[in-house]
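In the laboratory, one determines a bound structure by crystallizing the protein with its ligand and collecting diffraction data. In a computational setting the workflow is compressed into a single prediction: the sequence and the ligand go in, and a structural description comes out. We illustrate the idea with adenosine-5'-triphosphate.
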Amino acid sequence: MAELRNYLEGRPNAILFLYGPKSSGKTTLMYRLFDRIEEEKGYEINFLNLREVFLASYDDFIDAFFKSADTDSAFKTGTRRQYSLFGLFKLDAFTERMLKKKQEDPFLVMKREFQRLQKKNILPVIIIDEFHKLDGLYMPDKQKRLMVELMNFFVAMTKESHLCHVIIASSDAFFIEQVYVDTKLRKTSKFMKLDYLKKEDVLFWLGDIKRHNKVQEYSLTEEQIEAIWQTVGGSVWEIHFILEELFQRPLDEIITKMKREKVAMIADWVDYDDIEERRNLLAEFNAHNPIDRRQLTGLRNLLGQAVKDNILYYDPVEGEYGVQGKSLEWGIKEYF
Ligand SMILES: Nc1ncnc2c1ncn2[C@@H]1O[C@H](COP(=O)(O)OP(=O)(O)OP(=O)(O)O)[C@@H](O)[C@H]1O
Ligand SMILES: [Mg+2]
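The predicted complex, in structure-token form:
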């Protein structure tokens, strides 16, 4: 939160990319940021979670990003969180019609909106979650990729015109890599990694679940906490899963079952035409984790598949591949 704050308090100068392994809390953090600064004067914060949006065409993009002011009030009642339900920009009905008929340039519409807010001393903050979902969409002339155009537009709005802040979150490592290898984008962007919790935070949390989770029925011994850490590390989502299971069954049983599931996941993943390559790759990660990308040459396609299938993660800033989470490390270890 402090790092994000720091970014927002500066003059807009770069796009901020928030990345990190699956379920590390990127979306949760964005929602939290939204809640905190929504009420503050001086910012106009817009949150768009593309995971919740159906995107198959350019028209879907227009629907997601823009909505007319008239339809707004009709939906507002009873809706607590507008930001995940509506487009980013509120327009008058005329502009909306022009946009839909493709007689108005969406980038100009956005820029006009930013300039209007600037005159009122308001700084727009655009947050887009799951940005990679725009991949595969094209501009109406079918020549240009929408995602690339939008990214160039955001570079112009941040680094060149300083008109708005842009935060983009994505767990798609290949999308982040694409951005990172594009020198122009790399130089005009900041990268922030949201990783799993550190051990001290897990110990702090699990040492007092009565306070942190309002659990009265049981508490955890030091050995149990250590066993949980050894099994899933700082993966909040999995720790939460274990805490819920503990109402039903003992920890040993939960841990054994989790590890077995991960072994099955690895066995499934390995069993393809290229089984030997897959097995060799995982054997390397069984021996070393993470691995510097310079030591993994010639494996681009397979590594890409492993990342897509949530077996490995890729960190473009560190330049390394690693196993997606501690529980999966167990899966690999016990598979072999
Ligand atoms: N630091 C945290 N504090 C509280 N809950 C967390 C935290 N990190 C993750 N969670 C919980 O873990 C789950 C996954 O979090 P979230 O969806 O925010 O992760 P993500 O990084 O956006 O995942 P994805 O890679 O799938 O987009 C949620 O149920 C969330 O409540
Ligand atoms: Mg997310």
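The two ends are 40 Å apart (CA to CA). Keep in mind that any predicted model is a hypothesis to be tested, not a measurement.
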